[in-house]
Structures are given as C-alpha cells and as structure tokens.
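Dear colleagues,

I hope this message finds you well. In preparation for our joint manuscript, I am sending the Outer membrane protein assembly factor BamD (Psychroflexus lacisalsi) sequence together with its predicted structure, so that both groups work from identical material. I would be grateful if you could confirm receipt.
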Amino acid sequence: MKRLIVLLIIALGFTSCSEYQKVLKEKEILPKYELSNEFYEKGIETGKNKYFRKAIRLFDQILPQYKGKPSGEKVSYMNANAHYLVGDYFLSGYLFERFSKSYPNSEKVEEAFFKSAKSYYEVSPIYSKDQEDTRTAISKLQFYINTYPDGEHFVSANEMIQELSIKIEMKFYEIAKQYHHTERYKAAIQSFDNFILKFPGSKYREKAFFYKFESAYILAINSISSLVPERLAEAKIYYEDYIKYFSGTELSEQAKIYATDIEERTNTLTEL
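The corresponding structure tokens are as follows:
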C-alpha cells in the first residue's frame, strides 16, 4: 500500500512537471497566467521556493503582455514579491520600486516602498566592505518613513536605519584607524576629525579623540626640526580637546604620558 502511494505521488509529480513544461512552451497567455497564479499561491501556502521560481519563469513570459492592463498590477506585484520571498533582493528592490512608480494608487504601494527599501537592507554588506548599498537602503527607508509616518512598518524601518547607520559609523572609524596604523598620520588626523563631527554620539568617540591626538603627537616628534614646535603645539591642543571630555579612563593615562613628553620637548626647544 505504501509503495502504491509513493508511486502515485511520483506520477502526479511527473504530470505536474509535464504540464508546466507544456505551458511554458505555449503561445497562449491565459494558461501561463493561471498556472503562474497557482504556483505563486502554492509558494505562499508552503513557503517553498520551488513554486515561486516556477511562477517567476511564467511571470517573465507574460509581464509584457499585461503591461497597462487591469491584471498587470497583480502580476507585477506577485513577480516582485516572488523574487523577494526567494531572497533575490537585488532584483526585488528594483521590481518593487518599478511597481510603486507604475501603480502609485495601488493599495500595495506602501508595502512596495517598504519591501524595496528592505531589499537593499538585506544586501547591505558587512561594515568593512563598500557601503554604497547600505547608503541606498538608508535613503529608501528614510523615504518610506517620511512618506508614511503612520505606516505599518514605521518602527521596523527606524530600527533598520539605526542598524545600518552603525555600519556606516564603523566604516568611517575603521578607515581613520587604518590611516593611523599605517602611519599616515596627517590623513588619520583629518579622518578622525571628520568622524568626530559626523558621529557626535558614537561609542567610538573617545578613541577617535585619543587616536587623533596620538597621531598628532607621533607626527610631531618624528618631524624635521623646523616643523616640530608647530606640530607639538597642535598636538597639545588635541590633548586639551581630549582631556576636556575624557579623564580617568585607561586611554587618558596614556594621553597624559604623551602630554608630559610634549611639555618637556616644548620646554627644551624654548631653552635652545
């Protein structure tokens, strides 16, 4: 009995596959439309990507014929959502954006704006890589928030923006720190300065102030003699900026050691 059931399931599978292949090759649009809907609904019901992928192949064939027709809105939405649900976020971001432009009065337009933005959120890379997609995601999520301040996904969009903003922040910080570690101290000073201005509430704020000061200190003591006095004076200003906000920390102890050395070197130069 069990063997018979298995054979019946296999037979039904072959029948389904042959029907699908037959419809794919047909010139008539209606069978493709009906079967694409069937596979899409099966995908929604089961959560299985294989149904969405079959639906997508059919959508690709029928979308041009439904452009401008009443059913075009439904097909365009299902196609974008199918790509979204299988994790093809690069394409779903574009398709949802195109849907919202093509059907601005659709009841699905808010969802389309959000899912387009979230698609870019999903492809945002780790902070150490190029953050172009991250910036795009932030921009699109902010647009959703501005457009739908009472929207269903308002809270989620805000949370995602905060998460993505931390990536951007870390990227800026790591670039500045890389300049410092590779002994490009002028670039490090400028980068840490930009970071401090751009991210005033960052958890890396103390380190940014400290490494900016340390970069200036190392640059000063390794400069040619004619530049040393000016650069020591500049480093001292950066120390004063640092210690004004941060004292009693582990880094502040090291900063005081540098500051003492700056004072001694300055006094020696004055005596010469």
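For the figure legend, we might mention the following. The longest helix spans residues 154-181. The mean pLDDT is 91.

With kind regards,
E.M.
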